[in-house]
Each structure stands twice: as structure tokens, then as C-alpha cells.
């Protein structure tokens, strides 16, 4: 039987870079919230012993697709735990709405949805912590999507602490450029020495993103989009970009600004939510 599983976007409501580790990765302090908007996966399980992706994702080879990689990793882990049903297989299709490389975490979210959904459908019995441990090997943002609660993240994003930021309405806009995460992290001009602060201090300070200055400098399109949105509402970059979000108290206020968007800007309006739509689906809400 085919079932539908949400794969939501995330925003980094703030993102600070507090240092660089010897392996080159950066230590962060970031606040994740989900959006009630994202991709949808259709999944059916079978006894074919194969993982099949029925809908190719443009520009991503099937073997590299995080959907397929997550399913294969879950199979290995369940096999080691002796909880994998005989010849476990799955057919997966995706309705992709999230832009790739947009800082909305679409690929990581897809991986998390596959881990959570197949663990449920195959009844492989892995705990959320075990799923998150598999997930972090696929991408730094997978654990937060697996756990499914808005979170303050530290380290490279794997140390999570639940948080409850206000659930605002967001206009999320894409400037039409694609930005590579490593290119931003390798930029010599990147701010990477923001002092470590407590969550209470961060929540009571204005929110900002340390990647924004270098991204605005490198990409005129992002710079212009942030300047334009700031005329209407508090606005900033999510993750390493390219998407930018503006916050509003009501859906209609966000939609009014979206209607004024300049040519070449695509966008959507969605609510920020502290419980992931994936968690709600799992619980049957
Ligand atoms: C920084 C965030 C915030 O959400 O940016 P977005 O990708 O969402 O924009 C993410 O944690 C990103 O996670 P993800 O996109 O999975 O990054 P990865 O594939 O793990 O890393 C890509 C590359 O970025 C650099 N990198 C990534 C994360 C990090 N904390 N420090 C780094 O220096 C490394 O060079 C790494 O090789
Ligand atoms: N199922 C998938 N959906 C999106 N991207 C994927 C997927 N599988 C692999 N990728 C790769 O992951 C990269 C990052 O995608 P994504 O998570 O959407 O962006 P970001 O981390 O900037 O939010 C893509 O550019 C793509 O090469």
C-alpha cells in the first residue's frame, strides 16, 4: 500500500559561526524551525529486496540521491540489528517543491523522511537517536529533521536542544541563483569568530546570520532581494543561502508582499512550526 509522507523545509532563524575545527568544519550556534511547506514522498514497501526511486531528481544521480542513500543505510543498520524483514524493498516517488541548494534543507529533509517512514513501515525498531546517528553521516541537518522538534543546535549541528520560537508566517524568496555550501564556508572573509553565547542571550538579541555578509557580497541577486524585503519586514538569509525569508504576523501580510515580488524572484508563504509535519504524520495527527 502507498502512503504519503511530508518532507518539510527548515529555516535557520539565526546562524552564528563560533569557530573552525581542525577538520575544517565550522562550529555553529543555530536555531532551526520547520515550515509547514515542503516536498512529499510516496512510499510503498515490498519484498523485492530493492530500493527504487520512481521519480528522478534533476541533476542528482540515483545512487547519490539522499533518498536512496538513506534507505540503503537504514537497511544496513536494521540488518545488523536483525530487525530487517526478509527481502525488504521499497518504491519511493517524490513530489519536489523545495529548491535545491536553497538553504531550506530539502535534501536532508528527504533523507530524514525516508529514515522515519521506512523504520515505521518495515517495523525495523530503530530509536530516534539511532536514526539521527545514521542521518548525520548523510548531512549535518538530517538529525533535526529526524527528531522533528524546533531546536537550538550547536557543534556542527548535531547537538540539539528543543526550543520554542514564535510560530510566525514567512515569505521565503529564491533569488534564482544556486549557492554551494562549501564555497561559503571556505570564503576567507567569512565571520567565524562570533563569541559563544547562551540560548537565553541569543533569544533576547536581534537574530542574524553570519553567512549573510559574504553571500550578499558574492551574489548581487541575494543582496538586492534582502534590501527589497527589508523595506517590508525583518528579513535575512537561511543557512548558506540562496533563499531569504521575511517574517510577518499574519499570512495575508506575507502574501501581499509576495505579490509585489520583482521579476525573476520565486517565492512562497508558509507558517513556521515547532513540531515537524513529519512527526505529526507519524503520530497520525
Ligand atoms: C550550515 C547549514 C545550516 O543549516 O547550511 P545549509 O546547507 O542548510 O545551507 C548546514 O548545517 C550545512 O549542512 P549540509 O549542507 O548538510 O553540509 P554538509 O554537506 O555536511 O557540508 C558541506 C561542506 O560545508 C562545510 N561545512 C558544513 C557544515 C559546517 N558546520 N561547517 C562546514 O565547514 C564543509 O566544507 C563541508 O564539506
Ligand atoms: N533528494 C534530494 N533532494 C535535494 N538534493 C539532493 C537530494 N539528494 C541529493 N541531493 C544533493 O544535495 C544538495 C543540497 O541540497 P539541499 O539539501 O536541498 O540544499 P541545502 O542544504 O542548501 O538546503 C543538492 O544540491 C543535491 O546535489
TrEMBL record:
Catalytic activity: 4-CDP-2-C-methyl-D-erythritol + ATP = 4-CDP-2-C-methyl-D-erythritol 2-phosphate + ADP + H(+)
Similarity-based family: Belongs to the GHMP kinase family. IspE subfamily.
EC number(s) given by UniProt: 2.7.1.148
Positions of the GHMP kinase N-terminal domain: 65-148
Subunit structure: Homodimer.
UniProt-listed Pfam families: GHMP_kinases_C, GHMP_kinases_N
Binding-site residues, ATP: 99-109
Name of the gene: ispE
Molecular function (Gene Ontology), one example: 4-(cytidine 5'-diphospho)-2-C-methyl-D-erythritol kinase activity
Domain GHMP kinase C-terminal: from-to ranges: 202-259
Sorted UniProt keywords: ATP-binding, Isoprene biosynthesis, Kinase, Nucleotide-binding, Transferase
Taxonomic source organism: Pantoea brenneri
Top-tier EC class: transferase
Role: Catalyzes the phosphorylation of the position 2 hydroxy group of 4-diphosphocytidyl-2C-methyl-D-erythritol.
Catalytic site: 10, 141
Gene Ontology BP terms: isopentenyl diphosphate biosynthetic process, methylerythritol 4-phosphate pathway; terpenoid biosynthetic process
Classification of source organism: Bacteria, Pseudomonadati, Pseudomonadota, Gammaproteobacteria, Enterobacterales
UniProt-recorded name of the protein: 4-diphosphocytidyl-2-C-methyl-D-erythritol kinase
Domain of life: Bacteria
The UniProt record lists the keyword Oxidoreductase: no
Annotated pathway: Isoprenoid biosynthesis; isopentenyl diphosphate biosynthesis via DXP pathway; isopentenyl diphosphate from 1-deoxy-D-xylulose 5-phosphate: step 3/6
